[in-house]
């Protein structure tokens, strides 16, 4: 009997010890979880540096290229974490895609866009912000490019951390400007170009918001508020999908495939017109089939916009990968060419290994850190459904086409987020208009209290202020950071 009691106490002690070990293991696992993503990112950055050493070869400049490749990989990770949310956020917020599905689709199409249609020639000084002749020598130029790359990456990293979608293009522009001023003085900067970029801070979100609001008004008036919603959808949804197909065909011809085939603006519009008409005709029987048996209510309409929304998100990712990969690897490619040739050029070719760093870095950044900004854009600014998210995606493509026609530099980030704001503010205006109309019919209705009116706002003002502030200070913040990094590098080099 005593032996049984002793054994029972021994087992009880063992259970307690195992329980403590289990709790300790769970606590360690919980504490280590936030470090997994940064750890994987660090491994990718190290591998990018080692790959650069392997492909560049052993020269006097190998160490410089390795460090620059690490900076380029870091920038690519941040682009994936911040910029890609603009393409996938609306689809996820509208529940047309799960977070996992969005990340998989974006990773595939971002990588495909970068590798298939990515810029094989880019401006070494980012859209002519600073002239190469203003640099004293190749060494100064390399330091300036490294400072620009690191400063823009650090700024985008900070913006992602505080939950603000910012333009990575403007971050690079600010970085180049700051390094250019620090190395060659204020006169080295092309201020008229900087003026057009500053104008795009206002033009991009306004154009995106107005176009998205216009399409949402059309959908509400022609489909949602019709007595027979399904019949209205059968009439108008094929046309809307056709407009989307035409817009994206022209958008990809202008922005996504320009490095594969030289296409004029007029030709791109003709391609878009042809694609739009064909899609319109093809979608008429498809929408008729999809709408059979659907109830005459708004929830049924979401089914008809789901697939077009997913396709638009994928196409936006492809075009983004083709265009914005240069933000990560453009300065790196300039450093590689400058160290190889010993001279400066207005344009450089991007080696395949450099493009791979950019393409895979964007995908890794999206996978590891993207969900935070995807949730912000998709659901935390204003509530989206498939119709509203469709308007945001379509606005992004059309705004880029209009801006290209007008010759205006625009930011895809500002367009997409501006479109989300436009949809939200239009819904507020429309709700207020309907409330006034209802009061006019029933004048005895009690007025809504100010607190209740504030509660009914459909756009979160705190996010509007945070994002707008981040947009305004992106270029000066990246410029100041870049100048400080450049001066530090120059002082350390003696």
From TrEMBL:
Single GO BP term: phosphate ion transmembrane transport
Q: What is this protein called?
A: Phosphate transporter
GO function terms (MF aspect): phosphate transmembrane transporter activity
Q: What is the lineage of its organism?
A: Bacteria, Pseudomonadati, Pseudomonadota, Alphaproteobacteria, Rhodobacterales
Q: Cite the entry's keywords alphabetically.
A: Membrane, Phosphate transport, Transmembrane, Transmembrane helix, Transport
Q: How does it sit in the membrane?
A: Multi-pass membrane protein
Answer yes or no on keyword Transmembrane: yes
Give the family this protein belongs to, as stated in its UniProt record: Belongs to the inorganic phosphate transporter (PiT) (TC 2.A.20) family.
Location within or outside the cell: Membrane
Q: GO CC annotations?
A: membrane
Write down a Pfam family by its short name.
PHO4
Query: Its principal location?
Result: membrane
Please give the start and end residues of each transmembrane region.
35-56, 63-81, 140-160, 172-191, 197-219, 239-257, 263-282, 303-322, 350-369, 389-406, 412-429, 464-489
Domain of life of the native organism: Bacteria
